[in-house]
Every structure is written in structure tokens, then in C-alpha cells.
Amino acid sequence: MAQQRQHFQRSRHKRKPHEEYAYVLDYLPMGNPSDKHPKHRTQPVVQLIGEDYFLLLEALPRRGASLEVGERVYVGPIAEKRLKIFRVEAEIEYDDLTSFAKSMLPTIVEEIVRKKEKVFVEFFNIAGPINIRFHSLELLPGVGKKTVEKIIKAREREPFKSYEDIKERVHIDPVKVITERIIEELKGGQKYYLFIRPPRREREDVVPPMFLNYLEVLYERVGKQREDEEL
Hints:
A five-stranded antiparallel sheet has the order 4-1-2-3-5. Helix content is about 35%, strand content about 15%. It is globular, with a radius of gyration of 18 Å. The model has no long low-confidence stretch (mean pLDDT about 90). The chain is α+β, with helices and mostly antiparallel strands and about 230 residues long. The chain is built from eight helices and seven strands. Helix 3 (about 115-125) packs across helix 8.
């Protein structure tokens, strides 16, 4: 536990996370009239969600590029690899998304969670208490103290190996609860954040929310499990 706490403290001081790949949530070839960035109101703009840290991004597409909702695109620093994205312009928040982009979030977040099975199964193996009364697993929707106890006893007997293994041994749907938790965190207003960095306005509060930064911990343990590379 002490070692895990030290790890979280170190993680909070690491560089700002960045994305290399992201999924298209909405593509507006004529611009977004309600965009808070004036130049995005009259030129093509893409809203995306990052594959590794679930960052919400707004980007300019390359001229003539054809983009489809749900498409996975490279958004990293190597310009030659950004075949469809000219430039990532800004990190945005949930309220900046179009209604259509918000409607696509559950489907696309679930797809990412399914592809990162090794990462999120490891979360069930290592998640720890936040304090003496509250366990981080209790932040998952529908998971109460009895289920937490069941998870801890099951993983002490043998670490979980897959989503199906979790389903069979503790009778919860891990993909569903992780997806729902990530979307709750993207919406903001949480006291604790397991996976998503809190919105800027909350980070600047007098008493900011606690960011447990589990993704960084999990990636250091099992890698990022991208679909076309293992890092």
C-alpha cells in the first residue's frame, strides 16, 4: 500500500500525457458554429478521444482528407504519420463536444476498453483502498462493499486473467463498469478520478479532486496494449 501511494505521488509529477492515436467522435467539414474557438466555426474541424489517456481533442483535418466517425487516426508528433490530421489544436472538455460526439462516447470508449483488456484486467488485480473506509473499486458503478470484498478474495486466490474470468468469478461486467466510470470522469464533477485527469477548472479549485492516475500505473505494469504495437 505504501509503495502504491508513493507510485501515485510520483505519477502526479510526470509530464502532461499526450496521445498518439485517437478515435473520431465527430467530423464537421463546414466547421462547428458553436465552437468556443472562433476559427473552428468556419473551417473543417474534428473532435476525437485519445486511445491511451481518453483526452478529448479538437483537430484540423488535412485538406481533402476523408474521415469517418469511429475511425482510428494517428495524432502524434510525427507529421509524416498524420495522414488525415493536419494538427491537434486543443484539448477540450466534455461540455465542448457536439451532441453527436457525446452520443458516440459510450460506443467508442467501450471499444477502447475492450481492446485494452490486459490493462483493465490488471486494474482489478491491483486497485487499492483510498482510505480506511473507502476502496477505489467502489468508484465503479454498481460496485459496493460486498462486491469489493468478493473481488479482493478472488484475486488473492489467483489474479484475474481476462474479462471473462472476472465475469465468472465475481459476476460483474468489467467492460461495462469501466466504460461507465470513464464517461463519468470525462463529464467531471468527481471527488476522485481513477483514470481521467480532472478538468482544468477542477484542478485549479482550492481543494482539487484526488487524481489516482491508475492508467499511468497500469501502463508501467503491462504496457499500453495498442492494437498495432506493444509498448
